[in-house]
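Shipment paperwork, digital attachment
Item: protein structure file
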Amino acid sequence: MQLMALPSVAAAQSRVSLTFDGGSVSQYNLGYLQGLQPHGGTATFFVNSGTVATSGNFMTWAQLGNLVAGGNDIGGKSVNATNLTTDPNPTAQVCNDRAALLQRGLTPVGFAYPGGASNATVQGIVKSCGYGNARTAGSLSPTGPTYAETLPPPNWFATRAYAPGARILLANMQALVNGAATHGGGWSQIVIGKVCSQSLDPNNYSTCTASSGWIELADLNAFLDWMSIAGQSGGAPTGAALSTVRAAVASADAGAPTTTITCNGAACQSTPYTGVVSVTLAATDTGSGVSSTHYTVDGSDPTLASPTYVGTFNVNNSSASTTVKFRSWDYAGNVEATNTQVILAPADNTPPTTTITCNGSACSTSPYVETVTATLSAT
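Attachment content:
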């Protein structure tokens, strides 16, 4: 395809993230193998864990692993929800989805709202489940007035994107990037559904081109060609570059995670606990997402080599107080200051008890005529 020559524009740093939604197999067979990989380009793929490998229409877990090995980014999109603002259990949709991705060795940092729908409650759920950012599906346009999101964005859990409901045209993607460059740069996320090709995938071409947010493989490749020669004649504006969502948010995330602690399912109290205490840690991060949480019970400050928090753990508080120290790391490398929680043991108001034996047995009340070995035992 003939590349479109655009007028020269002022240089501005513009990050462009191609974000593929829904896990369609065409994104792998065409978008990745025939587009991104030959260009050395990378993108972010938001998938519904509940549909992965369920039919030939969706990518497999192995294919998702191949995407990551190729430098691409995997994000969450719920288990199988169509709208989290009306779903009966949005927390399970978001948290179970992230857990499924983590169990497969993937490390999602971003989330895409199904249908782009969210509200303050849903955004809070996404954050509490461990994500650091979430993408909507609108508010950026190749005709303006907004061409790009700012970094950092005004709301990490409602980042703006270009998400046309029909075909994604090469000219519109170029206009979006060109407009961003002439308006101070920023971060332009482009939402792509299926990738279509009459020559390489003729059997699915009709249904592919009837879907929302579809793109011709030829247009995708032309856009990648254009981006690859940014700053040169016939190329994208100087300063424009492809970036995964993970890389974009990490570049702007300067804040550390926040971790809270509960004891026996409630706020830890300053009064003594008796016996075993169940300790739960919960971490959130704004930006790149929670990477890991570490803790100690020996009084030392946690490091990455300390025990990793994977779920509720118990401390035995029957004989002595326990000092739990904990903190979290995010994917941008920010680390939280150490938190300390002393779990008090009951006060000791009982005096010790001491017993004596003579020559290895109970002492007699009768006189001893030889040397006596006395042994004391205290509890």
